[in-house]
Specification:
Distance between the termini: 35 Å
CATH superfamily of the largest domain: HUPs
Number of helices: 5
CATH class of the largest domain: Alpha Beta
Number of strands: 2
Strand content: 5-15%
Order of helices and strands: HHEHHEH
Shape: globular
CATH topology of the largest domain: Rossmann fold
Number of domains: 2
CATH architecture of the largest domain: 3-Layer(aba) Sandwich
Strand order of the largest sheet: 1-2
Length: 103
């Protein structure tokens, strides 16, 4: 039961981030925006392909992703979802590093 509450909290937080990003994009004059929160119990490669497929099927012109900005050993151990998407997609990709990792 605890897993479901963590997942619900993560989805709620993800939607808050997407809502804020959409507001910012509109304030900056970006035209059409589509939010898509990908929730899956898959590996990064499969999730990346799901996102790329969704973007292709819906005529996306740009993918915007957040990243933790891991480097070194953590990058080797954890991998990079954004990097995986970049390798699988032909679309331009805007990657935004999390504030927690900037300091």
């Amino acid at each position: 039961m605890q897993h479901e509450s963590y997942e619900a909290a993560a989805v709620a937080q993800g939607n808050e981030v997407l809502d804020a990003a959409e507001r910012t994009a509109r304030e900056l004059g970006v035209g059409n925006t589509v939010k898509h929160l990908l929730v899956a119990n898959k590996g990064a490669r499969e999730m990346a392909q799901d996102l790329v497929d969704y973007a292709d099927e819906n005529g996306a012109g740009l993918l915007v992703l957040g990243t933790h900005g891991r480097t070194g050993l953590m990058h080797l151990l954890m991998g990079s979802f954004a990097e995986t998407v970049m390798r699988q997609s032909h679309l331009p990709l805007l990657i935004i590093r999390s504030k927690a990792e900037e300091a």
